[in-house]
Specification:
By secondary structure, the chain is mainly alpha-helical. The protein has helices spanning about 1-15, 20-30, 45-60, 60-65, 75-100, 110-120, 125-150, 180-205, and strands at about 155, 160-165.
Amino acid sequence: MVSGAGISLIALYSRDLNFTQAGAIFVVGSVAGLLPDLDSDSGKPLIFLSNLVSVLVPAMLFFEAARLSSFSPEFLICYFTASYLFVYYVICSMIRKITVHRGMMHSLPFAVVCGEIGYLLFVFSGRDVALVAGLAVFAGCVVHLFLDELSTFSLKLGIIPVVKRSSGSAFKLISASIGATLFTYLILLLAATAIFLVSRSFSNP
């Protein structure tokens, strides 16, 4: 939350964002701090994150979906209900089943992927907002990884530093699963390609 607040405040005064945009940056930057815990099978952070993502993602994609229909009450009811159920019970459940705690979701490539997705979700608000959103999401993930790494150190007798076996498991570039590693880098490349294509559209209106 501190990183999300800091980035949103800096953007508010240096990038001429309005208060609504800065508030949105604060929210996604704060939520990003929980994203690496999507691979956890239990716990309140996972339940909170699953519920929040199930609401935020459909909301952020609403205007794209609305192009296929009208802003009628029946469309709103069907869209948000179906989207929430799909994200929560299909996407989030699938993530929990196929991931291993402290796997690739606790890695720098995953943090980059999250930042790229943050950029793409805000791209319709303009390049500046998208850049700040991507940075806030990336920073939130990195802060989570940093705190995880700090927890791998303890003091024996109050003065002797002891390193746990889990040290280095957060700031990694690959995991024990080749499939998970390749899949993460594939998503990273696909998202980077999408950002490149969108950036070209900004420069060539």
